[in-house]
Specification:
By secondary structure, the chain is mostly helical. The protein contains twelve helices and three strands; from the N terminus they run E-H-H-E-H-H-H-H-E-H-H-H-H-H-H. GO terms for molecular function: G protein-coupled receptor activity; olfactory receptor activity.
């Protein structure tokens, strides 16, 4: 670690987000598909929320969980994409010290909140298929309320130390972040302090939260598949799996983009540095844009509710 005496003693009050340092000339072209995806994500999630709110037949626990997912998607999009487009369109690369770490907190906490919400939704499907007679007594509005509190508190409290640890580091001179967003790794490596504990905490907490959610999701679908295969009534298997199809597609969107992002970061020396940056942005756009569309297309009740909503407008 370089000695702090080699750095300027002037404290850093803001950072500069240097998006795609090797390809800045085509940022304006990239802003077009990103802005369209952003508008699609916002429109689709707001439409879904309004549909569930206005359609009384959708006032059920499963749809309340879907509303929670849409709210998380909206917050994630608004936290990341407007600033990225501001950089692309107007060249406003500066971001204040406090705004950077607030963005870092929201990204880390809401990403794990989404993962936890998928886990709760998997449990909902498990009870619906494996314990159908007990479903009305287990999956209640009170259950959804308690599950939502658990999702927010578990992930918010456990990820809060990440931006706190990063903000307490000394930033002596360098303030240019080679990224479009304030990720913990991109920011903390600018510090003139030791960042080993900071990175270790993020690694442990990230894999603990996301890994435990993934294990529970896999277990839920293992029991679902075992139950479905034991059903001998004609058409029952297809019907049972159909109720899980939308949820599985959403998990695939979420986990695939995240997995690609992890792999590209691990092999960053073999690929252009701009690739992980782009994937990080897309991870905050593609799942939020596609999640409500998948449920809107595959769920008859939501599709009918959206049609009613559009006729009112």
């Amino acid at each position: 670690m370089t000695s702090p005496s080699n750095y300027s003693t002037a404290p850093v009050s803001e950072f500069l987000l240097i998006c795609f340092p090797n390809f800045q000339s085509w940022q304006h072209w990239l802003s077009l598909p990103l802005s369209l995806l952003f508008l699609l994500a916002m429109w689709a999630n707001i439409t879904l929320l309004l549909t569930i709110q206005l359609e009384t037949t959708l006032h059920e626990p499963m749809y309340y969980l879907l509303s929670l997912l849409s709210l998380l998607d909206i917050v994630l999009c608004l936290t990341v994409i407007p600033k990225v487009l501001d950089i692309f369109w107007f060249g406003n690369k500066s971001i204040s010290f406090s705004a950077c770490f607030l963005q870092m907190f929201i990204m880390n906490s809401f990403l794990t909140m989404e993962s936890c919400t998928f886990m709760v939704m998997a449990y909902d499907r498990y009870v619906a298929i494996c314990r159908p007679l007990r479903y009305p007594s287990i999956i209640t509005n009170q259950f959804v309320f308690r599950a939502s509190i658990f999702v927010v508190m578990r992930n918010g409290l456990l990820t809060m130390p990440i931006p706190i640890l990063s903000s307490r580091l000394r930033y002596c001179a360098e303030n240019m972040i080679n990224n479009c967003i304030c990720t913990n790794i991109s920011v903390s490596k600018l510090s003139c302090d030791d960042i080993i504990f900071n990175q270790f905490y993020q690694f442990v907490i990230g894999w603990t939260l996301l890994g435990s959610d993934l294990i529970l999701i896999v277990l839920s679908y293992f029991f679902i598949l075992r139950t479905v295969l034991s059903i001998k009534a004609e058409g029952a298997v297809a019907k049972a799996l159909g109720t899980c199809g939308s949820h599985l597609i959403l998990i695939l969107f979420f986990s695939t983009v995240l997995l690609v992002l992890v792999i590209t970061n691990l092999t960053r020396k073999k690929i252009p540095p701009d690739v992980p940056i782009l994937l990080n942005i897309l991870h905050h756009l593609i799942p939020p844009a596609l999640n409500p569309i998948v449920y809107g297309v595959r769920t008859k009740e939501i599709k009918q509710g959206i049609q009613k909503l559009l006729r009112r407008l």
